[in-house]
Amino acid sequence: MVGLGGLLLLVGLQIIASQEQGPPHGPPPQWANHKCAGPPPAIKNPQKCCEIQQMFTEEEMASCGINKFEEENRQGPPKPPDCNKQECLLKSKDCLNDDGSINHKAVAEHLNNWASEEWKPAVEAAVAVCLGENEVPGPPHICEANRLMFCIGGVIFSECPTWQDNDDCKQLKEHINECKAAKFPPPN
GO terms for molecular function, please (predicted)? Predict the structure, then answer.
């Protein structure tokens, strides 16, 4: 059930956290020790905190060269998928323009068609954050398709209407909520 959504959410959380860190060499010294300047707390299975229906079928993922995500076989932190694979998925839903750029309207339509009623607020938030500006947010060294998928996954995960009620998930949700509101750099 988690599949690509789980992978994207895990990577998305890591990318979202790193967006506030500045260049890849780490956060500026004035906020290097701030808890929101790094990844969320180490939680064994963060994707279990919110079960999200896959946005793409396993067949669509396989046709784009993306293998089903299996947590138990992963070693180390998740890595972003190859940009061509993400673009392939977006093309399968007609979410890329002829020039290869993201078709914001088509992505919003796809998300709205994907979402059940309880997920509509999360999708609305993702559309506002990830498609609201001319440029998809995220580190410029990451391709636009990956930035889009990370952004959507991260926002939908953080706005999850079916968050699990256990200690790990409560800790993760607290971190997400605190860091969502954090302004960087934080006051000294």
Answer: odorant binding
* Tokens of residue 148, six digits: 């889009």
Instruction: Reduce the DSSP state of residue 135 to 3 states and report it.
Output: coil
Can you read off the two tokens belonging to residue 179?
A: 């860091």
For the chain, the structural domain boundaries read: 3-180
Residue 164 per-residue DSSP state = -
Q: What is the pLDDT of residues 52-105, one digit of tens each?
A: 888 888 899 899 988 765 554 556 566 667 899 999 999 999 999 999 889 999
Nearest by Cα to 5 from 152, 171, 179: 152
111 vs 125: CA distance, rounded Å: 11
Q: Does domain 3-180 have CATH number 3.10.450?
A: no
Q: Which two tokens stand for residue 32?
A: 């290097």
DSSP 59-108: HHHHHTTPPPP-GGG--SS--PPPHHHHHHHHHHTT-B-TTS-B-HHHHH
**In 3D, which of 65, 43, 25, 16 has the Cα closest to residue 182?**
16
**Looking at this protein, which amino acid is placed at residue 65?**
G
Return the structure tokens found at 124: 């609305």
On whether the pTM is more than 0.85, the answer is no
Which tokens in the block code for residue 58?
């396993």
Q: How many CB atoms lie within 10 A of CB 78?
A: 18
10 Å CB burial of residue 56 (0-12, 13-18, 19+) is: buried
Question: 96 pairs with which residues across the strands?
Answer: 102
